[in-house]
Amino acid sequence: MGTMRKLRRKACTARHRVQPLVPEQFTSVRKMSEVLLDFAEPLLDTLDDDDDFKAAISFAALCWNCSLLPPKEQGQQLSAMVDGLGKSDALMRLEVEDKICMLLERKRTSFASDNRMVVSFEVVQDQGRPRLLVVSAFVKDSQPANP
Known about the structure:
The protein is α+β, with helices and mostly antiparallel strands. The protein has one domain (about 30-140). Helices cover about 50% and strands about 15% of the residues. The protein has helices spanning about 5-10, 30-45, 50-65, 70-85, 90-110; strands at about 115-125, 130-140. Helix 2 packs across helix 3 (about 50-65), helix 3 (about 50-65) crosses helix 5 (about 90-110) and helix 4 (about 70-85) packs antiparallel against helix 5 (about 90-110). The longest helix has 21 residues, at about 90-110. The mean pLDDT is about 80.
């Protein structure tokens, strides 16, 4: 019997079966796609189409990631968001500021212990319904959100 064959047989015995490593911190963590959908839920109530859904998730992900920044950087990023999204008129600017503050408060009160950053996301069609796929990463030293 060849050496490789012996090693394979030996590795397949119950005594030597290999189990995947699952770090303790990951066993009770919800999928980031579920968390992001819960977080963005107030924005998703009145949507008409898939483009609006993608825009709302994108906005929620930006606010989520901003909440993880140090306070000074957070203020700069949020100002840039308001300037970019609400530059056309004052009413739009106030609405954007209001939604950002609402989402930051929501992050602070309901999702404070989750310190993952949204790296990327994609909305795909699965059996005729949109499905959210999210890639996230843990942030070592995140700051609490400030409005």
